[in-house]
Amino acid sequence: MFKKLVDQAKSKLEEQATKIKEQALDKLNEAGEGLQGLKDKANEKISEAGDNIQGLKNKATDKLNEAGDQLKDLKSKVSDGIQEKKEDLKNMKDKALEKVTLDHLVPDVKNIIQKKVVPMLNVRTLGKSIGDDRIQAAFTTAYEFLPAPIRLVVGQETFLKFCSANKAKLLDEETEQSIKAIPESTQKFSNADEIIKLKELMDHGVLTKDEFETFKQQLL
């Protein structure tokens, strides 16, 4: 009888122990699932945070690139502006230098036209060498007599415009009439004929040796 009671008690204890064990395992499994869920959520949050950080990084990179492009454009515009200013200043300087040079040349040009240009126009073939506009031809020929350093500073076009604008200062009435009175040659002269005439001008002191050589080379 006693043994039966002991066996019954032992059986109940074993049943309770098994039940408690099963309940404990269930709790552990639930806790494990809960932990896994938390872990998954944490991983999702970490992944989202990583995506957000990458997005912010990409935006920051785009902004930096945009700022770099804007800075490059600004630098280019500033450089272009500086270059334009330099060119403007150079043009102003060149024009000022031309004007100062030309203003100082008025007496010399007037003398060149009287002493050298008029005799030159009288011996050169009109249609071939100087064209129909005698006054313009006089100014064009005068430019050829300017010293080389002056011609480096003052271009022929600028010189001719200056002469046209200051014709009254450069040509007195007698000189202008002498130029206009130059007859148009009906005879066609060869280069050799013109060189002979230029040689005569040199012999008479109208042309220097260097001037003679310059005009001779033009004909040759």
List keywords for this structure.
single chain; 220 residues
Topology as H/E string? HHHHHHHHH
Proportion of residues in β-strands: under 5%
Q: Tell me the span between the first and last alpha carbons.
A: 156 Å
- Quantity of strands, as a count: 0
Q: How many individual helices?
A: 9
The rough form would be described as rod-shaped
Global Rg: 52 Å
How confident overall, as mean pLDDT? 78
| Uncertain stretches | 126-131
Give a quick account of the main beta sheet: strands, pairing sense, barrel closure. none
Q: Structural class from helices and strands? A: mainly alpha
State the helical fraction: over 70%
Would you kindly provide a written description of the structure presented here, covering whatever features stand out?
- There is one protein chain.
- The chain is mainly alpha-helical.
- It has a domain at 99-219.
- It has helices at residues 2-123, 126-130, 134-145, 148-153, 156-165, 167-170, 173-180, 191-203, 209-219.
- Helix 3 (134-145) crosses helix 5 (156-165).
- It is rod-shaped, with a radius of gyration of 52 Å.
- The protein starts with a helix and ends with a helix.
